[in-house]
UniProtKB/TrEMBL annotation:
Residues 2-151 form the Formamidopyrimidine-DNA glycosylase catalytic domain. InterPro entries: EcNei-like_N (IPR044091), FPG_cat (IPR012319), FPG_N (IPR035937), H2TH_FPG (IPR015886), Ribosomal_uS13-like_H2TH (IPR010979), Znf_DNA_glyclase/AP_lyase (IPR000214). The lineage of its organism: Bacteria, Bacillati, Bacillota, Bacilli, Bacillales. Keywords: DNA damage, DNA repair, DNA-binding, Glycosidase, Hydrolase, Lyase, Metal-binding, Multifunctional enzyme, Zinc, Zinc-finger. Belongs to the FPG family. It comes from the Bacteria. NCBIfam families: PRK10445.1 (NF007763). This is DNA-(apurinic or apyrimidinic site) lyase. It holds the Pfam family H2TH. Its EC number is 4.2.99.18. The keyword Membrane does not apply. The keyword DNA repair applies.
Length: 274
């Protein structure tokens, strides 16, 4: 499933294609939403927002479209009224005079009044989104010390979208690796300094992945590996997908474990469990 940075990048593409352009047609592939086609056609998209792994398309007539890609949803940007060759099902199309933004395969789509968006069940419970909202280290520290989260192991907590929006499997691994925190540790186990370091790492990893389209490795190593002609898979991450490869910090073999039913990669030396 795409993580927060990938959804924000998709939102950027949709925004670039349709922002502030009159819509010639809006198409919904889900029958319950058909009545909204006439309401949104001829309106204008004035903002495309993300909330974790959900995307919100806001219109100037007071309506918004909520969509969640889930496992298989995918946005395509094409010349107006052009369509990709795919077996996916078209769920939403926004057509302007020069571009069409097309959402395929997503099944979680809703149309809301914009002022109702904060009360949508997913939006209402989702934590801060670093890539669409002004989130600070102090905001994240408040989340970490909240009684709902303070005593939960970070390996599972970081995947909880009510804690922080948009973190998935690779970001979880990378955040814990660069802070030297074992996934079994809880916020309650960490010093104030370690909590600050963790909050800073969340912002850094999400922002870096967004800005580099999926790279979390530090820029210096990325440039060295690219200059040496190494493939992209060799300079994407610090630890994720690097099972049995040497840790960049201590050269110990990275281990793959399972936490919250999903794979996670740790360095047994740099991230001690004790």
């Amino acid at each position: 499933m795409p993580e927060g940075p990938e959804i924000r990048l998709a939102a950027d593409e949709v925004e670039h294609a349709v922002l502030n352009k009159p819509l010639l047609e809006v198409f919904f592939g889900l029958p319950p939403l058909k009545d909204y086609e006439d309401i949104l056609t001829r309106a204008t998209v004035n903002r495309v927002q993300t909330k974790g792994k959900a995307l919100l398309t806001h219109f100037d007539n007071g309506y918004s479209v909520y969509s969640h890609n889930q496992l298989y949803g995918k946005w395509y940007i094409k010349p107006s009224y052009s369509y990709p060759k795919t077996n996916r099902q078209l769920r939403l199309a926004l057509h302007t005079g020069d571009r069409s933004a097309l959402l395929y395969s997503a099944s979680d789509i809703a149309v809301l009044r914009t002022d109702e968006v904060p009360d949508h069940p997913f939006i209402k419970k989702t934590g801060p989104d670093i890539l669409s909202e002004p989130v600070t280290v102090n905001d994240l520290l408040r989340q970490m010390t909240d009684k709902r989260f303070f005593n939960r192991q970070l390996g599972g907590l970081l995947l909880d979208q009510t804690f922080i929006a948009g973190i998935g499997n690779y970001l979880r691994t990378e955040i814990l690796f660069i802070t030297g925190i074992h996934p079994k540790k809880r916020p309650a186990d960490l010093s104030d300094t370690a909590l600050i370091r963790l909050a800073e790492a969340v912002i850094l990893m999400m922002t870096r992945s967004y800005e580099t389209k999926g790279l979390t490795l530090d820029p210096e190593r990325v440039q060295t590996k690219k200059a040496a002609g190494e493939p992209r898979s060799h300079y994407r991450h610090f630890a994720f997908n690097r099972h049995m490869e040497p840790c960049y910090q201590c050269r110990t073999a990275i281990e793959k474990i399972t936490v919250a039913s999903r794979r996670l990669y740790v360095c047994p030396v740099c991230q001690p469990s004790g």
